[in-house]
Amino acid sequence: xxxxxxxxxxxxxxxxxxxxxxxxxxxxxxxxxxxxxxxxxxxxxxxxxxxxxxxxxxxxxxxxxxxxxxxxxxxxxxxxxxxxxxxxxxxxxxxxxxxxxxxxxxxxxxxxxxxxxxxxxxxxxxxxxxxxxxxxxxxxxxxxxxxxxxxxxxxxxxxxxxxxxxxxxxxxxxxxxxxxxxxxxxxxxxxxxxxxxxxxxxxxxxxxxxxxxxxxxxxxxxxx
Length: 224
Prior knowledge:
Elements: H1 2-20, H2 28-33, E1 37-40, E2 44-45, H3 52-66, E3 70-71, H4 74-83, H5 89-93, H6 97-104, E4 108-122, E5 125-138, E6 144-153, H7 164-181, H8 184-197
Parallel strand pairs: 1-3, 1-4, 2-4
Antiparallel strand pairs: 4-5, 5-6
Helix pairs in contact: 3-8
């Protein structure tokens, strides 16, 4: 009886893992395009946090560069748009891809949307969460080469609290105040960006030509 129960439990665990895991990305178009450079466009912000676009945008370049691509300086890209009267992310992301190619000479552009950013307090827990969706587009053809979504939370960093219910409530309230004042989202945005874009991540970017791992297979689900 115990053996049968364990077998059923193991099967359910395996099936649950398979259901929750996203399918592997198709990199056919990415490999055919073989990009070398990326410009990061200002993110669309679907949250009430006005600081979210700046916080997220400053964290996106590192995992892309570490994956082996040349990333155009974010400040320079943003200033170029401002000098041409484009200050809103929606307007910038609406610029034709070939026009972006003409202006910057980049191979690709990263289109980003912030779906979640900030600290929330729910009964006995306080959590800062950042969720970002991004797409890499070939500026010559307008073809989407890669897309993905990732999320990270301060709850992943927290240790279990053994101070009882009152202690947990106090800790949650203190954490919310602290994380809001110090903008914990900046740190969590870095986690999200790495999880989303790094070539070391499952379904992340491929290794670029500046990486010593250029041309190597993408990480499998077990390697993520």
